[in-house]
Recover the amino acids of this structure.
């Protein structure tokens, strides 16, 4: 068995590229999946199911953002500002049901398995990874870590032209370096903002981490806040952060009263996922050549030569032998010597564990001289590791 | 305190040329035994092990076991500044974050000091067990380099098979196929021109030519190369460094996919 990558909600990201073109999602999906196959990776795509109740608010927000962007786009078109047109048109893209269905059909024709999550795709991905069915979860949504995906990959699906190295996170190492247990990590993520409940203004990743470290859980933090209560809350935050929090007003404090953090925590800890092997169809098969041609060329107007060439690529990739890795043969040993110089860093430079059957995925994670975790939409914004200037290849670096 | 004086400075220059394309950063380990290095390439497919034994140095002082993290590209830049006949001395103080390379011209009329910043690299050492190999091929290193270069113009991978007939290197690409067979040949004027094949069992393995070509950068270090193959192990491509040690490259083979792959 080679390595399978679960790609969570990849549909959304693909589609934002060539906005406007109806087939752009298929094009993106097609070429990127071929790229993965050629690299010896066996992808498994997971699609979102029904969103959890708690996420509805967040989804409504995204909807209104899209509406805003649509208005902005109209203005930009009127003003003729090319950059803005590009920017806003990307934001207006919405994945329709049809897009998703198209992608699923395409993948099945390519012989790539597709899994439909009962609810959140990230949660399903994490479950697949936990049960060892896949090597890692590739997504741009950091929620995957909160759902406990043991191994998480970012930038796997980035266009090759951007030359962004793939970044691998191991949740066990993150917890070790942050010195938190999984429950605390989940609380940390909720506190610094997630899809399921509003974040508290004035509390970002750093503050959240300090609060969790100091009190251990959201309950304890709230208890403390309640004891000191209302007006003292500003002072309370001040003592924790040593930064005056100007924006916390009384409205925000009352908001804490019915903050649904418990439900959010429940969603992260026991998400709705499918673990029944019989229901999960995880099988890589040969591509359906005729089906692909009729779908892409006849129905969607792709160039027949390009599609035929691509099919050849898929077939070649299937026959290609995978590159073995040294860890499958040689085991790590303790380093017998001490470094002449030792900075106070805690960088971990380690390789992923070999899979039982000597087959590893071989996308090269090249050196990134500044390992850095940068927040995206809704992840805790922890600027960790920016203190390290040591080149790292693979592994996570937390310099907290 | 560390002070290693190498009269044949060009050796170190050649060693760096052999390593720097495969590995970006690595820890050099110094002990009473010698000056050594073990490092993997970034995709963990190839590994290089270098040993320069202490006896090979004119002066070897290493008070305690030390490791020095260096960027091989930068180290190579500095060593390129040394003349081929220069004597090279590597010096480092305890707790210092630099290493000094001193180049002395043979006539002692020019002395150059290059100080390089060290790096903090946490790398993993792999334990490489001593193994009995199914087949060991010794051949002229230039010949091996030529074969790898030629084959890489046809295909991406090389199948190395050792049989009673000899050792066969073959590849396949879009334009066609290529097969090169080298037979055992010990009736030569110079012993280093011989091709010697010791075979316990026939063996056939597939490797990425890209790595093989990178290994052959070590050709200037030795006239002969030794290729050790076993079906369950990475290949070892060894270049001996006369009276000093070796550079050994390990390369994980390519593995054919199983057909029945329905269950993970």
């Amino acid at each position: 068995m080679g390595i399978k990558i679960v790609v969570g909600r990849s549909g959304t990201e693909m589609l934002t590229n060539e906005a406007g073109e109806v087939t752009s999602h298929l094009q993106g999906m097609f070429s990127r999946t071929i790229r993965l196959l050629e690299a010896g990776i066996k992808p498994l795509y997971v699609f979102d199911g029904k969103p959890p109740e708690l996420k509805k608010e967040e989804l409504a927000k995204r909807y209104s953002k899209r509406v805003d962007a649509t208005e902005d786009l109209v203005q930009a078109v009127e003003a003729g500002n090319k950059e803005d047109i590009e920017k806003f048109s990307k934001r207006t893209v919405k994945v329709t049901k049809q897009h998703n269905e198209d992608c699923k059909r395409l993948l099945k024709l390519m012989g790539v398995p597709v899994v439909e999550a009962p609810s959140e795709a990230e949660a399903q991905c994490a479950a697949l990874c936990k049960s060892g069915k896949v090597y890692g979860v590739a997504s741009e949504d950091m929620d995957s870590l909160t759902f406990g995906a043991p191994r998480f990959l970012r930038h796997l699906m980035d266009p090759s032209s951007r030359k962004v190295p793939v970044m691998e996170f191991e949740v066990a190492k993150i917890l070790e370096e942050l010195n938190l247990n999984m429950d605390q990590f989940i609380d940390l993520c909720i506190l610094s903002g997630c899809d399921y409940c509003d974040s508290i203004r004035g509390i970002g990743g750093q503050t959240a981490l300090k609060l969790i470290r100091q009190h251990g859980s959201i309950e304890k933090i709230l208890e403390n806040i309640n004891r000191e209560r209302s007006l003292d809350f500003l002072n309370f935050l001040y003592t924790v952060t040593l930064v005056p929090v100007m924006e916390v007003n009384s409205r925000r404090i009352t908001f804490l009263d019915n903050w649904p953090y418990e439900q959010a925590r429940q969603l992260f800890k026991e998400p709705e996922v499918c673990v029944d092997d019989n229901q999960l169809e995880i099988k890589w098969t040969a591509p359906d050549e005729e089906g692909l041609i009729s779908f892409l060329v006849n129905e969607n107007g792709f160039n027949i030569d390009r599609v035929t060439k691509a099919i050849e690529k898929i077939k070649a990739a299937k026959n290609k032998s995978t590159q073995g890795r040294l860890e499958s043969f040689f085991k790590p040993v303790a380093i017998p010597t001490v470094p002449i110089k030792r900075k106070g860093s805690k960088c971990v430079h380690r390789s992923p564990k070999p899979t039982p059957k000597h087959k590893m995925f071989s996308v090269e994670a090249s050196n990134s001289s500044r390992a850095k975790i940068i927040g995206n939409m809704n992840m805790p914004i922890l600027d960790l590791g920016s203190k390290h200037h040591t080149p790292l290849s693979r592994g996570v670096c937390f310099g907290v | 305190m560390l002070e290693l004086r190498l009269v044949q400075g060009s050796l170190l220059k050649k060693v760096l040329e052999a390593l720097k394309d495969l590995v970006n950063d690595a820890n050099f380990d110094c002990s009473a035994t010698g000056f050594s290095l073990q490092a993997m390439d970034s995709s963990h497919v190839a590994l290089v092990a270098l040993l320069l034994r202490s006896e090979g140095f004119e002066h070897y002082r290493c008070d305690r076991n030390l490791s020095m993290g260096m960027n091989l590209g930068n180290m190579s830049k500095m060593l390129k500044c040394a003349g081929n006949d220069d004597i090279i001395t590597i010096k480092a103080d305890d707790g210092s974050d630099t290493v000094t390379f001193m180049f002395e011209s043979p006539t002692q009329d020019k002395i150059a000091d290059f100080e390089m910043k060290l790096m903090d690299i946490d790398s993993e050492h792999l334990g490489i067990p001593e193994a009995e190999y199914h087949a060991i091929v010794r051949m002229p290193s230039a010949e091996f380099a030529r074969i790898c270069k030629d084959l890489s113009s046809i295909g991406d991978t090389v199948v190395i098979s050792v049989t009673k007939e000899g050792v066969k290197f073959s590849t396949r690409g879009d334009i066609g196929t290529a097969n090169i067979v080298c037979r055992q040949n010990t009736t030569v004027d110079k012993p280093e021109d011989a091709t010697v094949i010791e075979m316990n069992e026939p063996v056939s393995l597939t490797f990425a030519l890209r790595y093989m070509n990178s290994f052959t950068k070590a050709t200037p270090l030795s006239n002969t190369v030794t290729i050790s193959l076993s079906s369950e192990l990475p290949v070892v491509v060894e270049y001996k460094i006369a009276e000093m040690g070796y550079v050994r490259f390990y390369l994980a083979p390519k593995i054919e996919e199983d057909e029945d792959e329905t269950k993970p």
Observations:
- The helical segments of chain B are 9-19, 72-79, 141-152, 209-215.
- Residues 188 and 242 of chain B are 21 Å apart (CA to CA).
